[in-house]
């Protein structure tokens, strides 16, 4: 009986990890409509504090019901949008919020909050019931735009300290798992990283933002491998170049989807390739409000159907790009 319970528990955990860490389009021939549909915020880029508007949003997560949670940074609130709703409601407010992460096992949202010089990671029920609990206290990190919760531990992209740390929730301690040697451009250093993705083997993909590259930091190693962009930390608009990337997610085939914020585009980059295979969304170097344009995208996720959602931060909106699997 105990063995069967363990088997069921492991199976359910594997399903949870698959949902939260691995976007998996049906096949390599999946494409996305390059004209986005505004699902939250104003298609005209208007910012505001009403329930149907955003103001400089930063991050989003999607739960198993396709409910969307958005860090509405300059409105100082965390918004929840029930699936297909255009008007949401705040489940946390009073502090500005940058990075957020979903913990399905706890049915909770982890969020990096700040006001004045107070920065910490807090946890709330994903339905907004009850108060928040401080998970990571003051003075551990300095600016966090991205975090990942895994098995009661929290990976924190510690931007101003040029590192990624792994916080152990149970005993309130941490290890430095990437960077941590000050800023620099060689393989042992990071420079103002803003986004992280952790795969099932606990390898970390890092948007090394000011170095204009994606670094793969394998578990237990002391240096990163450049898997997208320039290993020499050079910015550019080409398909083999990046400019201030802010977010990356990776599917089970190793394909990366990159928010190349400084170039106002989303890239699809196949494993072991030296350049992106496609610009999925946006126009290199050209920002705008049109359905096929972006202005500093800062986060991207896939919903359960394989549609791509992008936080179009400076346009104060979230765009949805519908998947097309007709060639699969």
Structural features, described:
- With 328 residues, the chain is mainly β.
- 6% of the residues lie in helices and 41% in strands.
- The chain is built from one helix and 26 strands.
- Strands 2-25-24-23 form a four-stranded antiparallel beta sheet, with no helix packed on it. A four-stranded antiparallel beta sheet has the order 3-4-5-6, with no helix packed on it. The protein has a four-stranded antiparallel beta sheet with strand order 7-8-9-10, with no helix packed on it.
- A hairpin with a 4-residue loop joins β13 (163-168) and β14 (173-179).
- The termini are far apart.
- Keywords: Repeat, Signal.
- Residues 1-18 form the signal peptide.
- NHL repeats lie at residues 183-220, 281-324.
């Amino acid at each position: 009986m105990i063995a069967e319970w363990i088997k069921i528990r492991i199976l359910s955990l594997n399903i949870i990890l698959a949902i939260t860490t691995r976007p998996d389009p049906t096949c390599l021939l999946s494409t996305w409509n390059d004209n986005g549909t505004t699902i939250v915020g104003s298609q005209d880029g208007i910012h505001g504090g009403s329930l149907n508007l955003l103001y400089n949003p930063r991050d989003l997560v999607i739960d198993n019901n396709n409910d969307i949670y958005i860090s509405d940074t300059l409105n100082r609130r965390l918004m929840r949008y029930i699936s297909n709703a255009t008007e949401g409601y705040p489940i946390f407010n009073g502090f500005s919020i940058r990075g957020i992460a979903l913990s399905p096992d706890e049915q909770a949202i982890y969020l990096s909050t700040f006001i004045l010089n107070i920065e910490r990671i807090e946890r709330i029920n994903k339905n907004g019931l009850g108060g928040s609990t401080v998970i990571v206290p003051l003075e551990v990190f300095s600016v966090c735009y991205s975090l990942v919760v895994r098995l009661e531990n929290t990976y924190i992209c510690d931007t101003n300290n040029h590192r990624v740390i792994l916080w152990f929730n149970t005993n309130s301690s941490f290890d430095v798992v990437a960077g941590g040697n000050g800023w620099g451009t060689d393989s042992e250093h990071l420079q103002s990283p803003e986004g992280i993705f952790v795969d099932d083997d606990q390898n970390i993909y890092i948007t090394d933002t000011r170095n204009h590259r994606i670094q793969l930091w394998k578990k237990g190693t002391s240096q990163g491998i450049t898997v997208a962009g320039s290993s020499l930390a050079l910015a550019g608009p080409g398909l083999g170049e990046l400019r201030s990337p802010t977010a990356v997610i990776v599917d089970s085939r190793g394909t990366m989807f990159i928010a190349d914020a400084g170039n106002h585009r989303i890239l699809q980059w196949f494993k072991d390739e030296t350049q992106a295979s496609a610009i999925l969304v946006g126009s290199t170097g050209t920002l705008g409000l049109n359905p096929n344009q972006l202005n500093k995208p800062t986060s991207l996720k896939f919903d359960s159907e394989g549609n791509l959602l992008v936080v179009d931060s400076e346009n104060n909106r979230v765009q949805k790009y519908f998947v097309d699997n007709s060639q699969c």
